[in-house]
Specification:
alpha/beta; Glycosyltransferase family 4 protein; 16 helices; glycosyltransferase activity; EC 2.4.-.-
Length: 394
């Protein structure tokens, strides 16, 4: 018999006052799940948050970087308790980040089926975060580790974004393998779609005569953007008309600017800083090649299902990306790019030059990548898989 899921509570601990991949993920999930059921998203309500976003219940917090998460966990307990009494959800879906405890406790008390989505491991984040040695960060990390252990044990299902991450969860937390379902990330193929390259360049004020290599994403240590910078002299040696777009912001930005300046390449790179989500496709479409030079640490062990790689392909752009589990698989299955050894500027440069030098290869890879993402990795498909899981639980 077909089971109807009437409503879902979606619980998120990230902040909507910044643009990030996790925010895009949760909002796309919300928008697509809304097609199939009633859904409410609970999220921290800082003063600077855009409150025009629909179907979000903003929970008041203390707007201080050290107190946002503790105060959110405290206030969320009252908001969730009241909401469960007033309109009990069929399923509670929690994205694991920060240090949530109460949502799963509440689910056990009210016998509400629960799903926890996992995109990474706290231990791996600790290794590559530049603030990892600070006392505050270590306290928060300790709580996050305890939260992981508690939630993975007591939830009903776990969604992992990669096979490798699923295997690590099973190994580290002794979780039954059949409790963990792998659902990769996706792309909004209506927003991220091929556009005329010359028109995109013109709108962004970029030189039409140049060839652009584009990186999009949060400038964090694990993204490996410095290896694109180290590769750039080798690329420029073969393609003097190449230029580099680094789209995004983050803790590594100043360091990356310093490296670029030290190599005397500041005039070859454009660091855009944070830009609106809806303008990201313009930068991707202005590029000839897109890159994802992830480092090995943190990434190789758990694999990656990186939003940028799906969005690059959805725009019909060939990609050069580190040969990380998940990313390498995407490139091989789609035929949309070239995978290279992580942290190897020479190999990265050679792959970029190969694509810049052959327009027909770029076109074929771009068509392959777009087709593959549309058929296999749209957000609607992700939402339908989650709905199937919810129906199994109720």
């Amino acid at each position: 018999m077909f089971k109807k899921v009437n409503n879902i509570f979606l619980v998120y601990y990230g902040s909507f006052n910044t643009k990030s991949g996790s925010n895009i993920h949760i909002l796309e999930l919300l928008r697509n799940l809304k097609k199939y059921t009633d859904i409410v998203l609970f999220a921290p309500g800082q003063k600077s948050v855009d409150r025009t976003l629909p179907w979000i219940k903003y929970v008041p917090v203390i707007d201080n970087k050290y107190l946002v998460q503790p105060s959110y966990e405290f206030m969320l307990s009252f908001y969730l308790l009241y909401s469960c009494i007033k309109n009990r959800p069929d399923v509670l879906y929690l994205r694991q980040n920060s240090f949530p405890f109460f949502p799963i406790i509440l689910c056990k008390i009210f016998k509400i089926p629960s799903i926890v989505e996992v995109n990474g491991l706290v231990l791996d984040e600790l290794k590559v975060n530049p603030d990892s040695k600070s006392f505050t960060y270590r306290v928060f990390s300790y709580l996050a580790l305890r939260s992981e252990k508690f939630n993975y044990r007591y939830c009903d299902r776990i969604v992992s974004v990669t096979d490798k991450l699923r295997d690590e969860l099973v190994r580290l937390y002794s979780i039954p393998k059949d409790k963990v379902y792998v659902i990769n990330n996706g792309a909004n193929t209506d927003v991220f779609k091929p556009l005329d390259r010359e028109l995109a360049k013109a709108e962004l004020g970029l030189e039409n005569s140049k060839k652009y290599i584009c990186f999009v994403g949060h400038l964090a240590a694990w993204q490996g953007v410095e290896f694109l910078i180290y590769a750039s002299p080798l690329i420029l040696e073969k393609c003097s008309d190449a230029r580099f777009l680094v789209v995004g912001d983050g803790v590594m930005k100043d360091k990356l600017l310093e490296i670029t300046s030290g190599l005397g390449l500041s005039d070859k790179f454009i660091f855009t800083g944070r830009i609106p989500y809806e303008r990201v496709p313009l930068y991707i479409n202005a590029a000839d090649v897109c890159v994802a030079p992830f480092i090995q640490e943190r990434n190789s062990k758990i694999g990656l299902s990186a939003l940028k790689t799906y969005e690059y392909l959805a725009c019909g752009k060939p990609i050069v990306a580190s040969s990380i589990p998940g990313v390498k698989d995407l490139i091989e299955f789609s035929g949309g790019g070239i995978s290279v050894t992580p942290e190897n500027p020479e190999e990265l440069a050679a792959a970029v030059v190969k694509l810049l030098s052959n327009e027909s290869t770029r076109a074929v890879m771009g068509e392959n990548g777009r087709r593959y993402v549309v058929e296999n990795h749209g957000w609607d498909g992700v939402a339908r898989k989650i709905m199937d899981m919810c129906r199994d639980l109720i």
